[in-house]
């Protein structure tokens, strides 16, 4: 009985802790990033703006427990010039603007046992190669070109979640209980 209570307490502590996201820029150029809480259905990130990350440098942000943990995504997007993606990561090709790649997150979701749902999305277009690496050894996702496979990223303009109707729904999405993640630009 005591072992069960200790396990539950440890599980509660793990699923009720803030999460660290390391943003590592391996590109030979700076990357400008925007963090979006849209549609403000979970717990909002209220920390400092991410801003620009110079070539070959890193920045760490901490997002709160349940950051958009109600099956709606928090986003971190590249915001190249003329993309419009500095506004809640809405812009890109869907709005006739320059493309902007993004990562999407749902931390501590009750729908998936308190774990995190994460993916790379190029729905607004592909603008920078990206990789998500969980700290705890769960599945890594990598997209290095506009034509990366559907099991690694959502395709430009495809809002169906099915790779243009050719695959299962949301095959780019991963689920993990990791406390932290690293997003690598130009992996």
Automatic annotation (TrEMBL):
Signal sequence, renumbered to the chain: 1-17
InterPro entries: Osmotin/thaumatin-like_sf, Thaumatin
Keyword Lyase in record: no
PROSITE patterns listed in its UniProt record: THAUMATIN_2
SMART domains, A to Z: THN
Pfam families for this protein: Thaumatin (PF00314)
Entry keyword set: Signal
SUPFAM superfamilies the UniProt entry points to: Osmotin, thaumatin-like protein
Gene3D superfamilies noted in UniProt: Thaumatin
Keyword Secreted: no
Listed name of the protein: Osmotin thaumatin-like protein
Species in which this protein is naturally found: Mycena pura
């Amino acid at each position: 009985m005591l072992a069960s209570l200790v396990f539950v307490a440890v599980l509660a502590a793990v699923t009720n802790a803030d999460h660290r996201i390391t943003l590592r820029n391996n590109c030979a150029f700076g990357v400008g990033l925007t963090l979006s809480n849209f549609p403000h259905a979970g717990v909002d990130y209220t920390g400092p703006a991410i801003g620009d990350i110079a070539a070959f440098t890193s920045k760490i942000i901490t997002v709160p427990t349940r950051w958009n943990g109600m099956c709606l995504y928090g986003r971190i997007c590249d915001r190249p010039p003329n993309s419009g993606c500095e506004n809640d990561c809405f812009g890109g090709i869907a709005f006739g603007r320059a493309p902007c790649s993004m990562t999407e997150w749902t931390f501590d979701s009750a729908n998936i046992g308190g774990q995190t749902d994460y993916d790379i999305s190029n729905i607004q277009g592909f603008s920078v190669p990206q990789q998500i690496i969980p700290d705890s050894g769960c599945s890594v996702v990598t997209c290095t070109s506009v034509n990366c496979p559907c099991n690694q990223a959502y395709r430009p303009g495809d809002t169906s979640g099915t790779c243009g109707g050719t695959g299962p729904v949301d095959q780019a999405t991963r689920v993990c209980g990791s406390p932290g993640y690293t997003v690598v630009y130009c992996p």
